[in-house]
Amino acid sequence: MPLSRSLHRGLQKILSEVYEEVNATWRGLGEIEKSGLRMREKFSDFDIEKILPIEVETVAKKTACRCGEVLRGIISPPECPLFGKNCQPLHAVGPCMVSVEGVCAAWFKYN
Description:
The chain is an alpha+beta fold.
């Protein structure tokens, strides 16, 4: 059942009161402007990133997986050198093959 417009607007208002848009880094895609959310300062008592800060180490890509290019439409899944060989649904190398919603997994299953 779809949300009513007034409920949708109310939820959007609450979200915008609690969170602000920030640049976010996405695996295979890099940084995308205003694609992430961060709790606003007035809610910092509830912000796990402030309560329990962790550092996420940036690791250089060490695979031939070309999922980022598949997601951006630069190549099709069979153009990835791992597709159907080292990278299959039961032994996925990249995120595109991990779930049934992944573009590589769908391409693998339905060709």
